[in-house]
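Aim 2 progress update. The chain analyzed this quarter is reproduced below.
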Amino acid sequence: MNFEGIYCFDTASVRFAFYPEGPGGPRVVAQISEETLHDEFGAREVGDSLLETCRQHFHVIEPVAVARYQAEPHRSITLTIDDFALHA
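Predicted structure tokens:
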């Protein structure tokens, strides 16, 4: 699946799309905090660097987003450091 994401300066996050039921299912939009991308995934800069970090680690980020969606499908999803505590 191609990575779909944008850096959002106003929320200090990367907003990204994922498909929890596969490519034929619904498109869900979530975000991951800038702090998480720095602390958990080693991003050094902001903007495009954060987007690239998210793209490189999407194989780790996407399953966490899917799990959050499945647990609470009607709530907005903002992934933070706490979401990756078990993945360290």
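The longest strand covers residues 13-18. The chain has three helices and four strands. These observations will guide the mutagenesis experiments scheduled for the next reporting period.
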